[in-house]
Write a structure and sequence with these properties.
Length: 337
């Protein structure tokens, strides 16, 4: 049985179609629905092209980088391979999906978000007499723009230096680049959570009763200040994590068993706990991840395809454009230890 993917003409112009990724262009020409019930079911259009040119990108039997450049068509696949591998590194190191309430894709560099106040008269559902006006919640456009930032890393390597390197090993370097990008994005998110997005919505600052000493009472008091929200995520610096692990209330058998078995902690207050080195020492950020933070994406992972295809690697920029906005300012607070 002949398949359409074997006869597709690939060219670098497939990276230039506005509003569509390389894989989406491939899918439009070679839809995955055609392969249901066949041995190729479960592969997307890009993975089918790897199979077409017999390029193995992972495992002990992975091919060398040179395999991508055996033909002009297969060379076109190389930027997408890099983008996917970098994206994998981002996802492996990324805690943003655990603290982000919404993700907005936006074509531009300046974005204006919305906000509304929670609690008080604006959110109370009071009894309404016949003919009386129903209380309204006003959603407002933020006064100041959220600026998106271009973040990335430069990949520098000659084709001669990597042509005989196994793709499985080369992928490790690409995933590390993705991890660096994820860390930088988290730094931006933490900065917005703490200091706001320029619209006067910096997080309220709380402190422990005794400077330098974190107690369970401090945590309970911190948790109680989130009403009408709930503290369901807690970002902590490394030293605060150590303090938490030493609390008697976190040393019960169930918590210890969960930590030893999975490496994950759940605090007695019901919040998911995330340690990150991007936070200043002695700092914790509590938030209601359902309402606190918006991720604005100007672009996904982008790779300079011309240099990778025509010049066989050399130097290529791997970038992503994104920014963050606070949705409800009261949904996050900072605790200084």
């Amino acid at each position: 049985m002949a398949f359409a993917y074997d006869n597709l003409k690939l060219d670098k112009g497939m990276y230039q179609e506005a509003g569509r990724t390389f894989t989406q262009v491939l899918e439009s020409q070679d839809p995955s629905e055609r392969y249901q019930g066949t041995s190729l079911e479960g592969l997307d259009a890009f993975q089918r092209q790897l199979k077409r040119f017999d390029i193995k990108v992972r495992g002990a039997g992975s091919d060398v980088v040179e395999k991508f450049f055996r033909t002009a068509d297969s060379a076109v696949l190389f930027p997408e391979y890099i983008a996917r591998t970098v994206r994998q590194g981002i996802e492996e190191s990324d805690i943003l999906p655990q603290i982000t309430a919404a993700t907005t894709r936006f074509d531009g560099m300046d974005y204006r978000s919305i906000t509304a106040q929670a609690g008080g008269d604006e959110k109370e559902l009071r009894p309404v007499d016949e003919g009386a006006e129903i209380p309204a919640t006003t959603i407002k456009v933020q006064s100041n723009l959220v600026k998106l930032r271009k973040r990335g890393r430069m990949l520098v390597a000659s084709y001669e230096a990597v042509r005989y390197q196994k793709l499985d090993l080369f992928s490790v370097t690409l995933r590390q680049i993705g991890a660096h990008i994820a860390r930088t994005l988290l730094e931006d998110a933490v900065d917005v959570l703490m200091n706001g997005d320029g619209n006067g919505n910096a997080a309220q600052q709380d402190s422990v009763k005794t400077a330098g000493t974190l107690t369970y009472d401090d945590l309970v008091d911190f948790w109680a200040k989130f009403d009408p929200y709930e503290m369901n995520a807690l970002l902590v610096s490394g030293d605060v994590m150590v303090d938490l692990l030493k609390l008697t209330e976190l040393q019960n058998p169930l918590t210890g068993l969960n930590f030893q078995g999975t490496g994950k902690l759940t605090t007695p207050l019901g919040a998911n706990l995330y340690r990150t080195s991007v936070l200043p020492s002695g700092t914790a950020i509590g938030l209601d991840r359902r309402f606190a933070l918006e991720l604005v994406q100007g672009s996904d992972v982008m790779v300079e395809y011309d240099k990778l295809i025509d010049r066989q690697l050399e130097r290529a920029a791997i970038t992503t454009i994104s920014g963050f906005a606070k949705i409800f300012s009261e949904a996050s607070r900072v605790l200084e230890v």
